[in-house]
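Exercise: predict the fold of this chain.
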Amino acid sequence: MRMVDIIQAKRDGLALTKEQIDFVITGYTRGDIPDYQMSALLMAIYFKDMTPVEIGYLTDAMLHSGDVLDLSAIPGIKVDKHSTGGVGDKISIPLAPLVAAAGAKNPMISGRGLGHTGGTLDKLEAIPGFDVDLSEADFINEVTQIGTAITSATGNLAPADKKIYALRDVTATVEAIPLISSSIMSKKLASGTDGLVLDVKTGNGAFMKTEARAAALAQALVRIGHLAGIKIIALITDMSQPLGYAIGNALEIAESIDILNNQGPADVRELTLTLGSYMLMQAELADDLSGARHILETRLADGSALAKFKEMIIAQDGDASVVDDPTKLPQAKHAIQVLSGQAGVVTGMDTDQLGIASMILGGGRQKKGDVVDPAVGLMLHKKIGDSVANGELLATIYAEEPQRQDVVDMVTGAIHIGDAASAPELIHQVIE
């Protein structure tokens, strides 16, 4: 079998066989296939697409390119959630202890951020001492005992994906749905989950800017999950403005604590409850969404979800006192006010720009290896549809410097004020 023949077949729009795809993934992971040939194949896939069967073969080959976690020692149905990411997306942090407090087993392997704000692991590391690098044994033990754990990838999960993703990033092939979907699902299936709820974002702060593209990705992900024999559902949710008000690692931890205190922003609460309800149904702990939601609302109201978060922090060597006193989280030296220059209504937000503003402050990474400052970020005071008076506070910038006019200008330019607007729908579609 020759790589050049496989490239030619895909260039000409032919479907690749399982044997051809296995040959490519095995050879590239071992280093037998050079980057220039893999780049050619990725570009051919970008232009010629792949059938659902091909995508299934590709996901399976990437899944088995390394370790597959065996979570059979954890009793019950294991359920997880994955988000395609966005600005202010801290949902995993309140969601994990909430579903665990309701009795679900939630092993969550998360990542770091590159660009915009930090990833889930970066946010959790804003908690003093919190260890996100659990051994496989400790990860399994914590999920068994507490019901959840959030950690970085253990062992050698889907190494083919790591190599291919790095190549996609420099060959302008990141947006190809077969490559996105196989990347996401190879890692999730390798993590050993039985059920998966997907949060696919759409809007100007999302990877998939249009709802049609988001739906196509969601459908591809759901098909892969069905082929793999797991329970799976995808929600397409809004990212035309940040989730919640906080953008930045420690700020988002504090907002997550508000949610677990049965308070916090309405959109973060609603999405946490909705995703959690589907997870409880997959775990067979509720018969329908309303019953699942009632269980979760009860766990928020009686304090058990907050107590579960403390348990999780302690188990991962963090300082759980931040739950009762969020001022113990890292604090920026300066708070800079961003005021409105006109009266009206917030009609829209350049969500990407707000994420980039937080990144420039040090809240995210411009390149791999950059150190994230957990204290910096933005706190919005308005959302789309809110009225604004001239001179009213739009946002607060938390920075290490007393003046950041560059960031003030970015934030001012990203919040659009006009005559009228209504809040966008949070949940656009559910794809089963």
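Check your answer against the key: The radius of gyration is 22 Å.
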